[in-house]
Amino acid sequence: MALNDRMIKTKENWAKFRRGGEEREVFEDSQDPRLPPGQHVVHNWPVLDIGCKPDLSLEDWRLSVEGFVTSPIVWTWDQYLAEATCTSVSDFHCVTTWSTFDNEWEGVSFKRLIEVVKPLSLATFVLFTAHDDYTTNLPLEACDDDDVLLAYKWNGKPLTKEHGAPVRMIIPKRYGWKGAKWVKAITFSDKDQKGFWEIRGYSNSALPWKNDRYA
Ligand SMILES: Nc1nc2c(c(=O)[nH]1)N[C@H]1C(S)=C(S)[C@@H](COP(=O)(O)O)O[C@H]1N2
Ligand SMILES: [Mo]
User: Fold this and answer.
1) Whole-number Å distance between alpha carbons of 30 and 41
2) Does residue 20 surpass a pLDDT of 80?
3) Are 175 and 195 a contacting pair, CB within 8 Å?
4) Which of 131, 133, 117 shows the shortest CA–CA distance to 188?
5) Residue 170 CB–ligand 1 contact under 6 Å
6) What three-state secondary structure class fits 175?
């Protein structure tokens, strides 16, 4: 796969030299109590990826949820849609310092997914794998939250390809890179396995309110 190696290298260096983000510029907007430290509001929706935007047909699309679960699933698009009854409004914070407010997401809530697959008690971590081979990881307790969704709609419209259609993860309390676009598999595990940016120096926890950008 042709990834954007130069961009990836640049961001890896940011992670190396901007540890903790202490020297980060403080924007005037950061007076806004809804803005985490070092963030500013944008009114467009930037696109960020590692250099590939997979084109997925709904007919061939599958979502696997596997690993340390009682009932693994492989959902077709219709099976996914049948469970996509959750709506949640949240803010989105990207590690590159932009934030967007009041995004309305629609899809399957992670809490519903947990009811369906029933994670084993040993399952304490989750790894997300996407169709561009991007990966990212979180503790299960970070995903087991009311505002975490496998989203297919944003502000009433289906997601566009560049934003992760047909389905992407939304995890509002973590920086945006923790939310895999074009999500393909969700793997529950007893072990924490680092994802694409976590291997390259990004924070494992990624908490916007703690300015927790790099490891
Ligand atoms: N599959 C996949 N998901 C991904 C990425 C990616 O490169 N591939 N980039 C992440 C990063 S770094 C960010 S900031 C957000 C950006 O989402 P957006 O392009 O919809 O704004 O997606 C995240 N999810
Ligand atoms: Mo990002």
Assistant:
1) 9
2) no
3) no
4) 117
5) no
6) coil
Tell me the residue type at 199: I
pTM of the model: 0.94
Residue 106 gets the label, from left (phi > 0), alpha (psi -120 to 50) or beta, of beta
100 is written with which tokens?
Answer: 């967007």
Q: How far is CA 111 from CA 9, 35, 125, 129, in A?
A: 36, 26, 15, 19
- Tokens 């849609």 label which residue? 81
Ligand 1 neighbour 208 (Cβ under 6 A): no
Q: Of the candidates 23, 6, 3, which has an alpha carbon nearest to the alpha carbon of residue 213?
A: 23
Residue nearest to atom 24 of ligand 1 (CA): 180
Question: Tell me: the pLDDT tens digits for 163-179?
Answer: 999 999 999 999 999 99
End-to-end Cα, the chain, rounded Å: 27
Q: Ligand 1 atom 7: the closest Cα is on which residue?
A: 49
CA distances from 49 to 4, 62, 70, 80, 202 (A): 9, 21, 33, 24, 15
Per-residue model confidence as pLDDT tens digits over 179-210: 999 999 999 999 999 999 999 999 999 999 99
Model pLDDT, residue 1: 65
